[in-house]
Structures are given as structure tokens and as C-alpha cells.
From TrEMBL:
Gene Ontology molecular functions: carbon-nitrogen ligase activity, with glutamine as amido-N-donor
Coiled-coil region: none
Basic and acidic residues composition bias: residue spans: 169-180
Protein name (Swiss-Prot/TrEMBL): GatB/YqeY domain-containing protein
Span of the signal peptide: none
Organism superkingdom: Bacteria
Length: 180
């Protein structure tokens, strides 16, 4: 089932229910999808794809998480709770997210598979991750993980400390782990 259909179905159910926060959040999502569809059609497209909807939902979650933190810092706990509730509702429509050690392992595997060695390979690694795991991880966080892995790798240290084998040929650095 397409994301937009799932969201439309949830909106119809929310219209019958009594959860006003759920109803307004789902309407907000529908409006954002409609806006993106119209923009895509204005540029000759057919509308937004599911992958674009997932990206949009991820952005909406990040925005609400940031807002919730800011409201908490300002002592406006009721607004922070509302942002957290909206974030939970939006997350229902996202694929199950890969996080923590699993994300670290997938990033390390991708770095190893691509034989990436330095920070210049971040783009290539991120492109591969987005192709392999569309919508399944927070790519902002994944980018930080990849950057750390490649930074360690570019310093001559083994990637093994981050869960991946060092696949570089011997002699890429001196014995102290520093590049000449």
C-alpha cells in the first residue's frame, strides 16, 4: 500500500475518533503531500513518490524533536508534549528505523564494501546507504557515523575499532598509525 493511501486511511479513521491532535497532525501531513504534488506537477512531474513522502515525514519528525527540546528549555512543557505527540504520530508512517549499533555496523559494512579510505568518500558512501536502506535510517546521523569511520580510516588507524575490517593494503601508513 502506498504511503499516501495509508495516511488517507488513517485520516478517515481519525475523523471518526476523538483524538484532535492525531486528526490535525494527519491533516498537516496530507496538506504537505498535496503541496509537494502540486509543485511536482507544476514542473512536469506526476507527483511525489513514496520515497519523497518518507523524506518529508523524516524532516517533519526532526523539526518536532528540535521544537520539543526548545520548548522544554524554555519551560513550556505543554507545548513540548504536543510536539512529542505529533512526532509519535508521524513516526507511525515511517519504515522501522535502523539505529545505534545496527546503524554503525551497516555504515561500516558500506565503507568496507566501497573500499572508502578518506573523507573525500563520504558522498559515495552516503549515496550507497541511501540506495541500500531508503527511509530506514536517519541519514544525518548516518553521515556522522560514516564521517567518523572515514576520519579514523584516513588517520591510518584500522576501521576494525568501529566494527569493520581494514581492507587497505599494507604500507598505507607507518607503524605508529600516523600518515607520513
Amino acid at each position: 500500500m502506498l504511503k499516501r493511501d495509508t495516511i488517507s486511511s488513517a485520516l478517515k479513521q481519525a475523523l471518526v475518533g476523538t483524538d484532535k491532535c492525531r486528526l490535525t497532525t494527519l491533516r498537516l501531513i496530507q496538506a504537505a503531500i498535496r503541496d509537494r504534488d502540486e509543485a511536482a506537477k507544476a514542473h512536469g512531474g506526476d507527483g511525489v513518490a513514496d520515497s519523497d513522502i518518507v523524506e518529508m515525514l523524516q524532516t517533519m519528525v526532526r523539526q518536532r524533536d528540535v521544537s520539543a527540546r526548545e520548548f522544554e528549555e524554555m519551560g513550556q512543557l505543554d507545548l513540548a508534549e504536543q510536539e512529542k505527540r505529533e512526532s509519535q504520530i508521524i513516526r507511525e508512517f515511517l519504515p522501522r528505523q535502523v539505529e545505534g549499533d545496527a546503524m554503525q555496523a551497516l555504515c561500516a559494512e558500506t565503507v568496507t564494501d566501497l573500499d572508502a579510505h578518506g573523507l573525500r568518500d563520504i558522498g559515495r558512501c552516503m549515496s550507497a546507504l541511501k540506495t541500500r536502506y531508503p527511509g530506514q535510517m536517519d541519514f544525518v546521523k548516518a553521515s556522522c557515523v560514516v564521517r567518523d569511520l572515514l576520519r579514523v580510516g584516513s588517520n591510518g588507524s584500522a576501521l576494525a575499532s568501529n566494527g569493520a575490517a581494514d581492507t587497505r593494503p599494507a604500507g598505507d601508513g607507518d607503524e605508529s598509525g600516523k600518515l607520513s
